[in-house]
Amino acid sequence: MSFATRRKPLAASQSHEGAHALKRTLSWPHLVALGVGAIVGTGILTLTGVGAGLAGPGVILSFVIAGAICACAALAYAEMATLMPAAGSAYTYSYGVLGELLAWIVGWSLILEYTVVCSAVSVGWSAYAVGFLQNQLGVALPDALVAGPHAGGIVNLPAVFIALAVTGLLLAGTRESANVNFLLVVLKLLALAVFVAVAGMAFNADNFQPFMPYGFAATEGADGTRVGVMAAAAIIFFAFYGFDAISTAAEETKNPGRDLTIGIVGSMLICTAIYMVVAATALGAMPAAELAKSEEPLALVLRALGQPLAAGMMAATAFVALPTVIMAFMFGQSRIFFAMARDGLLPTGLAKVSDRGVPVFVTIFTGLVAAAIAGAFPLGEIAALANAGTLAAFVATAACMMILRVRAPELKRPFRTPLWWLVGAAAILGCIWLFTSLPLGTMVRFLIWNVIGVLVYLAYGRTKSRLALSSPAA
Q1: Which residues are paired to 220 by β-bridges?
Q2: Rounded distance, CA 375 to CA 109, Å?
Q3: E strands within 367-466?
Q4: For residue 54, what are the contacts with CB-CB under 8 A and spacing of at least 6?
Q5: Most exposed: 65, 152, 156, 424, by fewest CB within 10 Å?
Q6: Domains, the chain
Q7: How many of the other CB atoms lie within 10 Å of CB of 153?
Q8: What angle do CA 397, 336, 265 make, to 5 degrees?
């Protein structure tokens, strides 16, 4: 068997002991909170307005379509995560089903996705934090310390701070950080409930006419921007991913068969319902054209309704909400890195676990890299790379689920994807369609990243992996 196609035995994905084993401390409420914390963040706070500008009131249908594609991927994740309850998510599934080279590419793509998301959200939090301090507390930070060199500053200090603060929280222990995340998610959901209650009183059905002013299919608008329900769905999709971070916690889950299923499927159902209710409420309270003009559409609605206190609460919610997103993705990144190091594709010394059950070295490394990027670089264009990495992981997971149904139908599956052939195909085709909707520049940069990754694998992982060392002739 060649190095490219050698596969890790499925049983080996579930047997780790000693310094390379993670502690089982999480139950399904922690996993649901982890998923909701990752999904409900910048998307609900900003993409409602962006989507309304592209699709009008039909953006509600865009949420349904994007949610449906993600739901198919989530069902595939639920089956694979319960079948192979080990750290590593799509990387681990690919290693056992598709082979070492494809597993490396998927893992390399996930490293890109999670790290860039952590950095991008840190920068987003910095903007909210600076505004919150200035508008609510009257504290103005020096311009040189709130922007990187690209914007004429020295370093985006708040972005560096939050990335390192989340790193410190994760180092405190998996259960401890999960408990804090749970509380922050509850606060975030309460704030959204207040928005729905307040803005719902100004609901006007006339704001939903015409429902699809730009049509259903993605077409070129007057300014060259793609508009329509499907164009909005391609963007809104990126407000949904984050549930895959749950699968990276499989090895730390007390009852994987039950808890992972509830965590993955439950968080997707909750978030899809939240997105649709909040979007419908916002559109009912304000015409889509007005909603599209603001980067903080929910706060805009509340201010327009003469509710400055509630608007301030939404700003504070963003201040609280975004760190939960960073926490979820940094948690996932460290577990992907940990799994690859444990398999020998990266230096195995990085896979050591502390007494608290935390992979210390990779968590610190992830936090430092995310902080460095957030503090120094503009992430507007680079952040789109995270989307490409996500789609690659979704396609790989759905493919693994379908292949194992044919190759090993006898395996015990705590969760079985209903209509697996239809759900798997829908996830793959939907993600491919969304990938082709990304800007060409993003696709090129994603290709370059993976070319670099393959070179790293050929130079190190090909001969240093545990499979390579156990079968030198391979």
Answers
A1: 226
A2: 22
A3: none
A4: 62, 214, 225, 226, 227, 228, 231, 232, 235, 292
A5: 152
A6: 25-470 (1.20.1740.10)
A7: 17
A8: 45
- pTM, full prediction: 0.79
Tokens 């829908």 identify what position? 426
Rounded mean pLDDT for each run of 10 residues along the chain, 474 residues in total: 68 50 69 76 69 83 85 87 78 91 92 81 76 72 74 80 86 67 77 87 86 78 71 76 71 75 82 85 86 73 82 75 78 81 84 72 83 72 69 92 93 87 94 79 86 93 84 54
156 φ/ψ angles, rounded to the nearest 5 degrees? -85, 85
Tokens found for residue 132: 């919150």
Residues 6+ apart with CB under 8 A from 292: 49, 50, 52, 53, 54
Tell me whether the omega of the peptide bond preceding residue 213 falls within 30 degrees of 0, making it cis: no
Confirm if 382 and 376 have CB atoms less than 8 A apart.
Answer: no
